[in-house]
Design brief:
Blueprint lengths: L1 E3 L8 E4 L14 E2 L21 E3 L11 E6 L5 E2 L8 E5 L7 H16 L4 E4 L5 H4 L2 E3 L25 H11 L3 E6 L1 H17 L4 E6 L15 H21 L3 E7 L6 H10 L4 E3 L13 H12 L1 E7 L4 H4 L22 H14 L7 E5 L2 H6 L4 H19 L5 E6 L2 E6 H4 L11 H10 L4 H21 L1
Parallel strand pairs: 2-5, 7-8, 7-10, 10-11, 11-16, 12-14, 12-15, 13-14
Antiparallel strand pairs: 1-2, 3-6, 4-5, 5-17, 8-9, 16-17
Helix pairs in contact: 1-11, 3-4, 5-6
């Protein structure tokens, strides 16, 4: 739902609002927010978010820029649309693992229980199929008390198995009226389908998405849960590779990190480490052979310092492995495992070994490290724990206030309610014409291989033209 204010004083102000239960269920009763009687919130001067509070999508604008797109700010509302005693909430985790899942589960349960007096919360086991093929498990503050100290998810997870009709049948049969869905790109697309079916049936059910992807590739929002932890853990692998490489002459440490379609983990881990000599991501295409290629750069760096660390995101160079000149794009669809990628880390390592094997003048040592599952499976760090708490509580506030069909996430540092259709428009990518990528190039001193190839091509073409002219 997009609201465009025509008032000249708020010219070009666009509110990308989220659906509300009252949009399709008339005459819904409201109730005073229980927070007004909560002793923990007695010290807060203003604990209700003004209904007109919004957060701008673009925080940096020119003096004469239009006010642009805004989102509804997350937070507790003065009136709620659920009686606490009537609430039956459920939580489901879908897709791959990432740090912070258990923290979000814990904080949804504790937020509902301690802030709103909701005592019926169910866990759906095993992802989306759990709605119709598995029993639910009751979740209480006692059950979830220590789960944030563990990796993974206590509810289990799976890819696929999404049957919208069966899922909504289960929601209806169990009397569930708040659904909290933790998942990434595909999961949020399917959450939108659940919301549409709920609305079609006219059910009083809030459907709320919580963005979970370790790759940080969900659009609009600043970041998703687990990303900070992933970057921190990735640095351990980079440090190990650096120690190995530095200890042996002509040694290369190759570290493969997650990032099938977006290279955020590789980029941020490289910037944080400062020990990386080359970072390869899906958004920045590279080539191996010839002038200005990766192999030439590796030779140059080894001659300069006799060791080297390369970080490669798992989606980098896939067009080279598959002999397909077209970059691989995410396939629209349900939350099934992504198309199988070839192991670019092993492929690259072998290509480097083969290249130097032909050059008898230099003996090469190469250490390959793949910490993928170590990064996914660890508990969230302090930063992510705080972030997960704020995200979970914002989701609870939104559902109790009657909002539905939205994903909660930070935009310019403020949690917002974002309609599903914006989240599902496509993945977020590293912008290689942005200053953040320039900072990485300045840190590693690596060439921008695509630009290098273009420059070499232009130089060769110029030479050829000059030769033909002569």
């Amino acid at each position: 739902m997009v609201l465009d204010c025509a008032n000249s004083s708020v010219s070009d102000f666009v509110l990308e609002d989220v659906p509300h239960l009252s949009d399709y269920i008339p005459d819904l009763p409201t109730y005073p927010d229980p927070l007004q009687d909560n002793p923990s919130y007695a010290v807060v001067k203003q604990y209700y978010v003004n209904k007109d509070d919004t957060v701008a999508q673009q925080i940096v604008v020119h003096k004469n820029s239009p006010r642009g797109i805004h989102f509804r700010r997350a937070g507790p509302a003065e009136k709620v649309y659920f009686d606490s005693e009537e609430v039956c909430a459920c939580i489901v985790t879908c897709g791959g693992l990432c740090p912070g899942l258990n923290t979000v589960i814990r904080e949804i349960v504790c937020g509902l229980y301690h802030m709103y007096g909701v005592h019926r919360v169910l866990g759906i086991e095993g992802g989306y199929p759990g709605f119709y093929s598995r029993n639910t498990v009751p979740l209480t503050p006692k059950v979830v008390n220590d789960i944030h100290k563990r990796g993974g998810t206590i509810l289990g997870t799976s890819y696929g198995g999404h049957d919208t009709s069966k899922i909504v049948d289960s929601i209806q049969d169990r009397g569930i009226n708040q659904v909290y869905i933790l998942g990434g790109y595909g999961t949020q697309m399917e959450a939108a389908l659940i919301f549409e079916e709920v609305r079609r049936r006219g059910l009083k059910v809030s459907v709320v998405g919580i963005p979970k992807t370790i790759d940080n590739d969900i659009p609009v929002i600043d970041k998703s849960i687990g990303f900070d932890t992933a970057v921190e853990e990735a640095q351990r692998a980079i440090n190990s590779a650096h120690v190995e490489a530095e200890s042996t002459e002509n040694c290369i440490g190759v570290v493969k990190l997650m990032g099938r379609y977006s290279g955020f983990i590789a980029m941020y881990a490289t910037l944080a480490s400062r020990d990386v000599d080359c970072c390869l991501i899906p958004e920045s295409h590279f080539y191996l052979e010839g002038p200005g290629g990766l192999l030439e750069f590796i030779e140059k760096r080894l001659k300069e310092q006799s060791h080297m660390v390369i970080v490669v995101a798992e989606g980098a160079g896939q067009e080279l492995l598959s002999k397909n000149p077209t970059p691989i794009k995410r396939v629209q669809g349900d939350a099934t495992p992504d198309q199988l990628f070839q192991d670019v880390g092993l492929w690259l390592s072998q290509k480097i070994k083969d290249h130097f094997a032909k050059r008898k003048s230099m003996t090469l040592s190469l250490k390959y490290i793949d910490p993928t599952y170590m990064i996914r499976a660890i508990p969230s760090n302090a930063s992510d724990n705080v972030f997960c708490t704020l995200l979970a509580q914002s989701a609870v506030h939104g559902a109790m206030a009657g909002y539905t069909g939205f994903t909660v996430g930070p935009v310019n540092g403020r949690n917002c309610y974002i309609p599903f259709h914006l989240i599902n428009e496509g993945e977020k990518n590293v912008v290689i014409t942005d200053r953040m990528w320039a900072r990485l190039l300045a840190s590693t001193h690596q060439p921008s291989f695509s630009n290098t190839k273009e420059m070499v091509g232009a130089r060769d073409e110029k030479t050829e033209n000059q030769t033909s002219d002569s």
